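Next comes the chain:
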Amino acid sequence: MLTGTAWSADRLGDLRDVLVVIGVPGARPGRQPVSSAIEGLLREMSRQRAAGLAVAVERQGARSVPAVIRSSAARLNVPLLTTTKSLGAWKELAPRLREYRYQHAEWHAEQLTALLNRLPSRLADADGDAMQRVTDWLAAALDGEVLVSDPFRGVLAASPESAPGTLAPLLAGHLVRAELPASVPSVMPLPSATSGTAARSPAPSVPPASTTLPTPSMPSTAESASIPDTTPHTRFQTLAAMGSPSMLSVASRRPFDDAGVDLLRHAGKVLSLIDQIDRRHSQVAEAEHAVRLGAFQFLMVGEEIAAQRAMAALTPWLLATEKVRVYVIDCGEADREIAARRSDRAIADRAMLVRCPAFNHLIVLDPVRDQDNDPAGVRDSMRQVVVSLPEHRMGGSRAYALSEVADAYAEAADALSVARQLPDRVALSNERADLLSALPPVAARRWAATVLRPLLALPMGQRDQLLRTLDLGLELHHASAARLVGIHRNTVTQRISRAFGLLGLDRSRVLSQVVVSTAVKVVIAHGHDEPSPDATADFVTMLATPEVHAWAESFLEPLRSDRRDLIRTLAAWLENDTHTQRTATALGLSPVTVRSHLRACAPLIGREPAVSPNPHVGRTPHAGPKGDEQPPGKDGPDGGGHAWGGVRPLAFALYVTTGRPPLPAAWRPHP
């Protein structure tokens, strides 16, 4: 506030960003002419880039200001304003402004401190919670609603919960405006930010002033009418995180002032850094998932050395073992990531978690070590996860060699059919002997070599490839097997067709596939000897041992306790290539009765007896109530996706004890 007209440069001092208030100068005898004093003042204000000159007048309007002031201000480009308040009123306002600025600076410092306190102390902790904490702080500081969103990842953080509903339409309008040419009017223009007071700060009573210069252009009347009265003051800021399209949107109940814009800018930088870290964590996690899946796919085809090398950079100790157990968690229709996060926390680094590429499953490989003081630790941890999640269930295998993960996986997947009927929805394969362990090794190796003679005569690379494809392709449906090992399903089909063509067996017959699958299991697990001239004799010798008979009786014992003749039904079902209708006709029963018998067998033998009669199509006869065949596309442990886990031992147990169904003993060369 300047009085009089003696305004020397020394008296003026620092005028940068200062509003100078003067009264209307009048000519006084013996004083410097008014025009010279005004000229000197305005020149100094222009040089120092002062905020503007306000002239105290009795009545608002440019004509109340002397012409000499108007012309000099226009020539020197100094903003000129008028005020009807006296210099005394402005002097009384000065200490209040200083107090306001002090309080505002103190509030601003408090808000920046609060922002710093919400930052994670470690980069590893920069997750969704960190972004949400910053969002909550910004919403409180600006007294509004805040949304952090991404067009691909959805809502990343919001405060309060109503923020997405409030800001989504405004954000959509903002993006539309940004894409339209400048000549195209916006459908719903957003309100422009104007100066105002900061949140939680008392607004000082500033004397009104009117500028004589043109004001910034505002939306037209038609445009303004399209903006609801309740539309809040909004700001949108892109979070430039590695090219991310993430957007920070804010709707405040008060206009944005410089401090609010400053807080918004700082929050945007922090959220951008958190978003970068979160995206980097996601990329690292996806890479780790891919490495684990690759290692699992190597194990599914017996390449344990390659799997160990793949895991060497992550957790090499997980596969530094000779045996593993496999657990398969069926997530049903639920989001698999929820179970995956809980499982990760439950097992930590004690086991390897894989997201199944074929089904909505999680697969856990649990290393078996002699020095393990808690052999049931992973199993019990996974049981707790499954129990805590409705509609989830788990099947577990016995301990298998690392090179036999495919067998362990099939056994765990077969157990899922039993798990659904248990209170805790968890079924584990018992430790009773299986068919391969009961077979006499010498006769089994010689018989398997005779059955697979054309395949074993191929060059080693082709031989191993076909054997591994047969092992998995006869255990699962072709599409499932292909996804599990990362190849095209047509490749699986072509390899199996070639193998059966070499063997001279009918690939469409279930019992032929059972025999070939068993011979492949023997060769992979125990190797093979020289073929013998009489495969049928080896087959009879192999199955005539007391150990095999004891195993067969033990396997069928649960079925004998049922009052229905389930064994007769199963034998006829296999003899009729697992067709329910043909089985019913052969037995003189209704198809409903046959399906009822098949459903009753699953919990008794711990396996699901459902396979495909025609491997050329992706359909499976189903033991359920909807017909003889399952609709295309239903592929999974409960939909026939696992073809031989239950049928192979069932067919051999029935043959050993009853002579039915008639299993083909060996390969027959074409005449």
